[in-house]
Amino acid sequence: MANTRIYVFNRFNRFWHWGQALLVITMLITGFEVHGSYSLFGFEKAVGYHTIAAWSLISLWAFAFFWLFTTGEWKQYIPTLEKVDAMIKYYITGIFTKAPHPFRLTQLHKHNPLQRIAYLTILSVVGPIIWSTGLLYIFHDYWTEWGLRAFVSLEWVAFFHTMAAFMMLAFVIVHVYLITTGHTIGAHLKAMITGWEEVDD
Amino acid sequence: MTNEQGRHLEAINQVKGKHMLRIRRSTIVLLLGWFALIGAGIAHASEAPPVKLNTTADHSKFKELQKQFKSGPEVTKACLSCHTEAARQVHRTKHWTWEFLNPDNQQRLGKKNVMNNFCISISQNYPFCTGCHVGYGWKDKNFDFTSEANVDCLVCHDTTGTYKKPAGLAGNPVVGKPMEMPPGSGKIVNPVDLARVAQKIGKTSRDTCGACHFFGGGGDGVKHGDMDSSLAAPDPEVDIHMDATGLDFTCSTCHKTSSHDVPGSRYKPTATEKHSAYIRGKADQGNPATCQACHGNTPHKTEILLKQVRMNTHAEKMACQTCHIPYFARGGVPTKLSWDWSTAGKLDANGKQFTIKDEHGHPTYASHKGDFVLGENVKPEYRWFNGDIKYTLLGDKVEKSDTPTPINRIDGSPVDGRSMIWPMKIMRGVQPFDPVNKTLVMPHTAGPGGYWKELKWESAIADGMQNMGAPFSGKVDFIKTEMYWPITHMVASKEKVVTCAECHTVDSRLKGIDGIYMPGYSKFGWLERVGWLIALAALIGVLIHGGARIYLSLRKAG
Ligand code: HEM
User: Fold this and answer.
1) Are strands B405-406 and B477-486 parallel, antiparallel or unpaired?
2) A36 and B520: CB-CB below 8 Å?
3) Cβ of B76: how many Cβ atoms within 10 Å?
4) What is the DSSP string of B522-557?
5) Which candidate from A36, A138, A166 shows the least CB-CB separation from B521?
6) Which residues contact residue B489 at a Cβ distance below 8 angstroms, ignoring those fewer than 6 apart?
7) Can you give the pLDDT at residue B283?
């Protein structure tokens, strides 16, 4: 099996990814402390870190969307059902027998079909739920002034925010694991650090 | 230097100038002249006669007050000779009538009518209780409430601190010669120099209001918990507004009074204020003693970006006091938290009344009163409260049970649009009641024939009830009661407020308060379970998957 190296993740890609990773993990840790699941920094500090990270994450997302749309990279997230069955089969059986990966990574197709669906869901469903409810949460002091009080209740805002947080948590767990399923255990991780991914010939 | 002073110095200068020319001395003379000038300037300034700036009338100069007064009413007559309307203004107030008609439910309240679970009621105890009446001579129920001379001006306007109205004299001070009080006790109370007090009359102060209000319930700090003698000259930690070395508020700075009618009420408190701060000229009939009267309804600066607190939202559902009074009885004076009358009446081996004291010397048991629980730095309890209070009055039916009978039932709910979450002192008691008529009772406690001396409930209650014209079966039992005291004084400095985490936690201060969502405390039943389950399932899933991969590749490797 000869190895080919291709350049999949450019600088912005990698910056975005790691920035997002760091912030999302910060949000999870501080968010669930705010939620009362454990205590680590203390409620007040947790809220503080969570808010700072929230603004950072929102800015990062805004940048990333701008970048995705101006560079055409958004096409990476167009969902496709093609080969989804093969992917699922690969994760269920092929991976154990070292069968070849059904998806060939190229610069034009960085994500396998399952990744596409997962990332699209995160970016277009979980993300928006989190930031829209998060923003409402942050601006709670202004609800009365803005006439929102009659339409939204903190309980529901918190409910959807927490629900999305659970989805994010599940995603992060699975995602971290799937990093190890590349050509070699460390291949994906290395790619996201250096930009270069080794792929099977 | 004012213009006038300038001209004056100029004139002196000219005179001095001629003088200097004559003696032809140089710089030293000039310097000396300069000092002389300064001296002349100072002398000039001190020529202005001293003036009192806090009043336009120096009462010590009034002929009417330069005499030997033989009684309180005699002083009052002198006051009224100038302040012609004062007594009739006082007549209209609760301080005089000890009566309040609740306009919402027509309940006739006021100290004259209600009961509490401390010393219970004033019936047949008038001469003792009325030591705190703004009048003279209320010794029984036949007191003349139309008498102008019997209004006590001094008790509120004394500035000397020497004017005292001992319990037992029906609101009169000791005048003339020293008096042994109580008789036979060997304790001597010296007479008050009424002329001196009258000549030094002034505005009300923390001391004058405090002389009664700090000692409610029969002793320092006993009743309120947020008012005791520590407020006479408090540190900022005890009360940020009254801070004697800081803002130095008196009671009337907030309880802004006109026509002698002090605003603020425990019978009809203002629980919610939905307005901005009062400004001059605004025709508003609101209560000037609320926090919002000065601070408005959105008092917190909201720095959304980095300082993440959403405090003004908190202020939409919570009284300011809830966060800003973290504990009551913070001044080193304990307050009574419960009082059990049912254990009163025990005697020691010699058949005498006795007292048990705690390590600080405060009684926790007294034969004539029963058992007490005292507390300092007490964390309040919290309740929704809209300002409506209904009293259990004499004649109202009560039922003995394990749930305490509320002496004053407070109303409030998260959805009535009028309630706020308030800190409360809830006074818990066990007090005598009539098990046959099923009513609370008003015993005669103080003075001859009262329970405190005789330790006989039946006769004490019969006496108190007969005075009120209320029926009494002759049977005595004891009933659990509770009484709500909204906490509003002893506002702490902003560094000492209740911290976020004291409520936003599983073991929240606001535990049990319904109708609010509180991150850190509130949970979403099933979402919680499903959420963690999915996360756990994901974790187990990847662990099994990874484990299988490792196992299979190890086996393959041999
Ligand atoms: C990965 C992203 C995020 C996760 C996992 C997350 C998670 C959480 C969780 C679990 C809570 C506790 C909710 C509760 O118990 O009521 C919370 C609270 C909160 N979140 Fe997030 N969150 C994220 C992103 C954001 C964003 C983007 C914003 C703002 C735009 C935000 C703003 C807030 C605010 C304001 C609170 C409430 C803090 C308070 O009590 O004052 N969060 N978050």
Assistant:
1) parallel
2) yes
3) 26
4) ---HHHHHHHHHHHHHHHHHHHHHHHHHHHHHHHHH
5) A36
6) B224, B226, B227, B231, B239, B325
7) 55
Residue nearest to atom 29 of ligand 1 (CA): A134
Residue B322 CA to residue B379 CA, distance in Å, equals: 10
What pairs with residue B483 in β-bridges? B427
Give the number of other Cβ atoms within 10 Å of residue B45's Cβ: 9
* Tokens describing residue A83: 């080969």
- pTM for this entry: 0.86
CB contact under 8 Å between B542 and A174, yes or no, is yes
Q: Is the pLDDT of residue B451 over 60?
A: yes
* CATH classification at residue A96: 1.20.950.20
* Separation in Å, CA B510 to CA B55, B184, B433, B452: 48, 52, 33, 40
d(CA B157, CA B76): 12
- How is residue B213 annotated by DSSP? H
Q: What separation in Å is there between the alpha carbon of A56 and the centre of ligand 1?
A: 13
Q: Do B552 and A36 touch (CB under 8 A)?
A: no
Helix (H) or strand (E) holding B477: strand B477-486
Instruction: Identify which of B501, B504, B538 has the shortest CB distance to residue A174.
Output: B538
| A27 vs A40: CA distance, rounded Å | 13
**Mutual angle of helices A113-121 and A84-92, in 10-degree steps:** 100
CA atoms of B92 and B90, how far apart (whole Å): 5
From residue B236, give the alpha-carbon distance in Å to each of B75, B131, B258, B500. 37, 31, 28, 22
Span B542-553, pLDDT tens digits: 999 988 888 888
Pairing, β B420-434 against β B477-486: antiparallel
Count chain A–chain B contacts defined by CB atoms under 8 A: 96
Determine how β-strand B370-375 pairs with β-strand B363-366.
antiparallel
Of A159, A45, A140, A138, the closest CA to residue B315 belongs to A140
State the total domains in chain A: 1
CA end-to-end span of chain B: 105
Position B302 confidence tier, pLDDT thresholds 50, 70, 90: low
Contact B531 A138 (CB under 8 A): no
Tell me the CA distances in angstroms from B278 to A101, B266, B275, B318, B321, one per residue in order.
74, 22, 8, 20, 19
Helix H or strand E encompassing B357: strand B355-357
Residue A147: alpha-carbon gap to chain centroid: 33
Output the DSSP codes for A108-162.
S--S-HHHHHHHHHIIIIIHHHHHHHHHHHHTGGGHHHHT-TTT--HHHHHHHHH
> Which of A47, A144, A173 is facing B539, going by the closest CB pair?
A173
What chain B residue is nearest to A39 in terms of C-alpha separation?
B505
Q: How far is A11 from chain B (nearest CA, A)?
A: 29
Burial of A105 (0-12, 13-18, 19+ CB in 10 A): buried
Question: CA B377 to CA B225: how far, in whole Å?
Answer: 9
Q: Decide: helix, strand or coil at residue B373.
A: strand
User: Could you tell me the distance, in angstroms and rounded to a whole number, from the CA of residue B191 to the centre of ligand 1?
Assistant: 69
Nearest CA to ligand 1 atom 15: A35
Q: Which residues contact A17 (CB under 8 A, 6 or more apart)?
A: A9, A192
In angstroms, the Cα distances linking B385 to B392, B425, B484 are: 18, 13, 11
If you write DSSP's letter for every residue of B34-56 in order, what string do you get?
HHHHHHHHHHHHHTSPP--SS-S
Contacts of A166 in chain B (CB under 8 A): 527, 530-532, 534-535
In whole angstroms, give the CA distance from residue B245 to residue A124. Answer: 59
Q: Residue whose CA is closest, atom 3 of ligand 1?
A: A27
pLDDT tens, A103-146?
Answer: 776 666 777 778 878 888 888 899 999 999 999 998 888 888 88
